[in-house]
Amino acid sequence: MPDSEAIQPQVQPAVDLMPKYREQQTMTQLVWRSYRRHKPAMVGTVIILIFALAAIFAPYISPWDPEKTNLDAMLKPPSAQHLMGTDELGRDLLTRILYGGRVSLSIGVMAMALAVVVGAVVGGLAGFYGGWVDNVLMRFTDMMLAFPQLFVLIILALALRDIPIEALRGTAFASVLSIVLVIAVLAWMRVARLVRAAFLSLKEKEFIEAARSSGVPNWRIMVRHLLPNAMSPIIVAATFRVATSMITEAGLSYLGFGVQPPTPTWGNMLKNAQVQMTRAPWTAIFPGLMIFIAVIAINFIGDGLRDALDPYKAET
């Protein structure tokens, strides 16, 4: 009789098709992995970083004074000495663009931050409490949205041009601060609507009910539980608000109601260039190009963040 062990089939070990170990990733790591796969967003991030670093280190990049006039070098075309040419007062255009980027980018970020804070407070209170609080705050928001924005922007720019703080009056920061306040006044409403919608959908969730039943105060529920879970639409809206604020500042400056000279911004550089566009087109081309590139880059970043923070699109 043959050996039983010899005729038994050789059982091959099963091949484990599943990975033996999968590294656990945090939400931040998942969002970053999804964001970096968005090529336009990464390009926009690099561009904005370059603009920000160039504005910060402007004194080390260009040796020229952004406000010093040189009548012997008026309206010089781009050359090795002046890479972007000079303006109507002989000032180096590249230097003014670098320093103007400081102001334009700062206005965009500060106006966005103020608008997001106001919008989050109004929308959060309306969405959490509901009832008459929601009605009053949302009707006020609708009223603000109904105003013709350009007209209100001009009126507010004129009204806030002289900051009622003696130490700041007449300074460049006062001019910048007034424009930030003007833009933020008409920029918080859409953020408020987004936050209200997020709070309305989240406040009925089980973890909020558990927090209420355990005696957590309302302000803590809003700040520690609701607001962090509503950050995705807020972050995306804030990103696009930076670009919108920069365009608004450029429009106000072009109309003569923005940051006042001699403080350079990309917007008031365009305004100053309109009288010599035919003789010296570079005085308008370069500031306009900076606004265009910065706004497109910020919009790319917003698109990338929107996809990365979307749970249905983000890769898990």
Please name the defining characteristics of this protein.
elongated; mainly alpha; MetI-like fold; 66% helix; 14 helices; 316 residues; single chain
Task: Summarize the structure in words.
The chain has 316 residues and is mostly helical. It has a single domain, classed as Orthogonal Bundle (MetI-like fold). Helix content is 66%, strand content 0%. The protein contains 14 helices and no strands. Helix 3 (39-56) crosses helix 14, helix 9 (189-202) packs antiparallel against helix 12 (231-254) and helix 12 packs antiparallel against helix 14. The longest helix has 37 residues, at 93-129. The radius of gyration is 27 Å and the shape is elongated. Mean pLDDT is 84; it is low at 14-22.
What does this entry show, briefly?
It contains 14 helices and no strands. The chain is an all-alpha fold and 316 residues long.
Spell out the blueprint of helices and strands.
Elements: H1 4-7, H2 27-36, H3 39-56, H4 58-61, H5 93-129, H6 131-146, H7 149-159, H8 172-185, H9 189-202, H10 206-213, H11 218-229, H12 231-254, H13 266-273, H14 282-309
Helix pairs in contact: 2-14, 3-5, 3-14, 5-6, 5-8, 5-9, 5-12, 9-12, 10-11, 12-13, 12-14, 13-14
